[in-house]
Amino acid sequence: MVLIAAFVALVFVYSLLSRRLERTVVTAPILFTVGGMLMALVPAESTELALDRAGFLLIAELGLVMTLFTDAARIAPRMLAGAANLPMRLLSTGMLLTLLLGALCAMVVFGDLSWWEAGILTAILAPTDAGLGQVIVNSPRVPQRIRQALNVEAGLNDGLSVPFLLFFIALAEVEGQGVLGQGILLRFLGEQLGYGLLIGLGVGLAGGWLLALARRREWMAEPRTQLGVVALPFACVLISEASGASMFIAAFVAGLAAQLGFREIGRHSVEFAEDWGQLFDYFIFFLFGVLTASVLMDFTLPIALYAVLSLTLIRMLPVAIALRGTGLSRASVLFIGWFGPRGLASIVLALVYLEEQVHLPGESTIRLAVMATVLLSIFAHGFSALPGIRRYATAVEVLDAGAPEHRAAERGSDAAH
Fold first, then answer.
1. Closest CA to 74 of 344, 279, 262, 275
2. 3-state SS string over the chain?
3. pTM to 2 decimals?
4. Among 102, 133, 134, 166, which has the highest number of CB atoms less than 10 A from its own CB?
5. What was the pLDDT predicted at 413?
6. What are the pLDDT digits (tens) for 295-311?
7. Which of 381, 379, 404, 405 lies closest to 393, judged by CA?
8. In terms of C-beta density within 10 A (0-12 exposed, 13-18 middle, 19 or more buried), how is residue 107 classed?
9. Maximum C-alpha span of the chain
10. pLDDT band at 414 (very low <50, low <70, confident <90, very high)
């Protein structure tokens, strides 16, 4: 009860000071993470709930499911068409190079990780979190095209990271099992990926069609539309749990598919996410702070080094390569490269990996590296957001009107975490 009471009190305080805090470097993730870390001062028996990984996982999974569904529902497929599209470059070339470079750096820095363990680590840390960079994506001083690129990338790369994570986990489980391992791998991928895809298509297409039908026939009261929309990702969770499929892939695909029948689904899902979904996010950061406080002394030099590399070289070099040929200024490339924070998705994907109970030799290294990277990102990206905007806005102001930064953003979405 002490933990819940502390979180509720912190939510109330944040609501009272939210406008004031918007003008400072203290972001909501910083506030709730620090609040959680301060709970380390409370006697251990009062914070037992925070250390119950099953409960933490459930809350985190629901938060990520809602995020994946909402983000997918807000992304129009036409936004990702064209080779010159910034989000498409970041989500294809940029993400693949991030996975490759992240695994290579993990092998060099830690030495004792297998390739599959390095793949698991980099897949967990590949997604970016627009929630940590909300100041960036909401700032009118940042060109709209740049804001949208970061926003859409963060809206989709968590969903794209899930298949890679499941694939690396499956490979790690069957390593050395020969033909038997190949059969287990194919079955695992079929259940997690294949069933997840089918469930998402079924729930999304049917749900979107029924919502549109109810709207046309005027069966549905406008304020209750949100309830029908929110039921779809939870339906994905229930069906996925019963069939052994990936609820994350199902929710992500359902958000995309539901648009085909009900084009307004993005607006209604966002209304719920903004009203209630943020509480999930804040609670996850709060519990993350509680858990991180207990392992701070376990962070070694290699762990800290990899955290720094993950937010700099592993992120910024792939972004620079992906954006070659776009004509963007060096300031824009650096800005996009730096503001790729790691947050909610990485926390949840790490918990998903731990829940699989693969018990790999490098599990402790993976867990600590993820926690250190997310913790560093929360503070580094939070504190640098306002100064970064000011410096970048000054650099962009001197560009001529025909610069790529000033082109109109691709139409169709403004997805956000």
1. 262
2. CHHHHHHHHHHHHHHHHHHHHCCCCCCHHHHHHHHHHHHHHCCHHHHHHHHCHHHHHHHHHHHHHHHHHHHHHHCCHHHHCCCCCHHHHHHHHHHHHHHHHHHHHHHHHHCCCCHHHHHHHHHHHCCCCCCCCHHHHCCCCCCHHHHHHHHHHHHHHHHHHHHHHHHHHHHHHHCCCHHHHHHHHHHHHHHHHHHHHHHHHHHHHHHHHHHHHHHHCCCCCHHHHHHHHHHHHHHHHHHHHHHCCCHHHHHHHHHHHHHHHCCCHHHHHHHHHHHHHHHHHHHHHHHHHHHHHCCHHHCCHHHHHHHHHHHCHHHHHHHHHHCCCCCCCHHHHHHHHHCCCCCHHHHHHHHHHHHCCCCCCCHHHHHHHHHHHHHHHHHHHHHHHHHHHHHHHHHHHCCCCCCHHHCCCCCCCCCCC
3. 0.84
4. 133
5. 45
6. 999 999 999 999 999 99
7. 405
8. middle
9. 63
10. very low
pLDDT digits (tens, 9 = 90+) for 202-220: 999 999 899 888 888 888 8
Domains in the chain and their CATH numbers?
50-176+187-402 (1.20.1530.10)
Question: What would the two tokens of residue 221 be?
Answer: 């009261």
What does the chain come to in residues? Answer: 417
Contact (CB, 8 A) for 325 and 346: no
Residue 187: pLDDT band (50, 70, 90) is low
Instruction: Evaluate whether 154 touches 128 at the Cβ level (below 8 Å).
Output: yes
Give the pLDDT confidence of 57-66 residue by residue, as tens digits.
777 778 778 8
Residues of 67-88 as b/e, b for ≥16 C-beta within 10 angstroms? bbbbbbbbbbeebbeeeebbbb
Tell me how many degrees the CA angle 338-339-343 measures, rounded to the nearest 5: 120
What pLDDT sits at residue 95?
Answer: 93
